[in-house]
UniProtKB/TrEMBL annotation:
SUPFAM superfamilies listed in its UniProt record: ACP-like (SSF47336)
Protein name, as recorded: Carrier domain-containing protein
Domain Carrier: 3-78
Gene3D superfamilies for the chain: ACP-like
Length: 82
Protein backbone atom coordinates (compact mmCIF):
# COMPACT_ATOMS: atom_id res chain seq x y z
CA UNK A 1 0.00 0.00 0.00
CA UNK A 2 1.22 3.49 -0.80
CA UNK A 3 2.16 5.71 2.09
CA UNK A 4 0.22 8.90 2.63
CA UNK A 5 3.40 10.86 1.92
CA UNK A 6 3.89 8.95 -1.32
CA UNK A 7 0.36 9.82 -2.40
CA UNK A 8 0.88 13.49 -1.53
CA UNK A 9 4.21 13.69 -3.37
CA UNK A 10 2.81 12.00 -6.47
CA UNK A 11 -0.30 14.23 -6.40
CA UNK A 12 1.79 17.40 -6.01
CA UNK A 13 4.11 16.35 -8.79
CA UNK A 14 1.21 15.46 -11.10
CA UNK A 15 -0.45 18.79 -10.39
CA UNK A 16 2.79 20.69 -10.98
CA UNK A 17 3.51 18.88 -14.25
CA UNK A 18 -0.10 18.86 -15.42
CA UNK A 19 -0.22 15.08 -15.82
CA UNK A 20 -2.30 12.27 -14.36
CA UNK A 21 -0.96 10.55 -11.24
CA UNK A 22 -1.12 7.24 -13.15
CA UNK A 23 1.56 8.60 -15.49
CA UNK A 24 4.08 8.90 -12.66
CA UNK A 25 6.15 6.27 -10.90
CA UNK A 26 8.53 6.29 -7.98
CA UNK A 27 11.48 5.35 -10.15
CA UNK A 28 11.16 8.20 -12.61
CA UNK A 29 14.25 10.39 -12.73
CA UNK A 30 13.50 14.02 -11.92
CA UNK A 31 15.74 15.51 -14.59
CA UNK A 32 15.90 12.84 -17.28
CA UNK A 33 12.31 11.56 -17.22
CA UNK A 34 10.34 14.49 -15.82
CA UNK A 35 12.61 17.28 -17.12
CA UNK A 36 12.62 19.19 -13.82
CA UNK A 37 15.34 21.72 -13.20
CA UNK A 38 16.51 23.08 -9.86
CA UNK A 39 14.12 26.05 -9.93
CA UNK A 40 11.14 23.82 -10.67
CA UNK A 41 12.29 21.48 -7.90
CA UNK A 42 12.08 24.32 -5.36
CA UNK A 43 8.55 25.18 -6.52
CA UNK A 44 7.58 21.52 -6.26
CA UNK A 45 8.97 21.32 -2.71
CA UNK A 46 6.75 24.22 -1.66
CA UNK A 47 3.71 22.32 -2.92
CA UNK A 48 4.83 19.15 -1.15
CA UNK A 49 5.44 21.04 2.10
CA UNK A 50 1.88 22.34 2.03
CA UNK A 51 0.40 18.93 1.17
CA UNK A 52 2.43 16.97 3.73
CA UNK A 53 2.69 19.69 6.38
CA UNK A 54 6.41 19.08 6.77
CA UNK A 55 9.37 21.47 6.45
CA UNK A 56 11.69 20.55 3.58
CA UNK A 57 14.13 23.46 3.74
CA UNK A 58 17.65 22.36 3.02
CA UNK A 59 16.82 19.54 0.61
CA UNK A 60 19.14 19.82 -2.36
CA UNK A 61 18.12 19.08 -5.92
CA UNK A 62 21.49 17.41 -6.49
CA UNK A 63 20.65 14.86 -3.77
CA UNK A 64 17.24 13.99 -5.21
CA UNK A 65 17.42 11.82 -8.31
CA UNK A 66 14.02 10.10 -8.41
CA UNK A 67 10.48 10.56 -7.15
CA UNK A 68 11.29 7.82 -4.62
CA UNK A 69 14.11 9.99 -3.23
CA UNK A 70 11.67 12.83 -2.56
CA UNK A 71 9.21 10.47 -0.84
CA UNK A 72 12.00 9.07 1.35
CA UNK A 73 13.16 12.58 2.28
CA UNK A 74 9.62 13.64 3.22
CA UNK A 75 9.11 10.50 5.31
CA UNK A 76 12.47 11.03 7.02
CA UNK A 77 11.68 14.67 7.84
CA UNK A 78 8.25 13.69 9.18
CA UNK A 79 9.82 11.06 11.46
CA UNK A 80 12.39 13.57 12.67
CA UNK A 81 9.68 16.08 13.56
CA UNK A 82 7.40 13.54 15.25
Amino acid sequence: MDSTFEQHVIAALADYLGVDTADLSLDQHLENDLELDSTEFVCLLVSIEKACKVELAGLRFADMKTVRDIVAAVENRARTLA
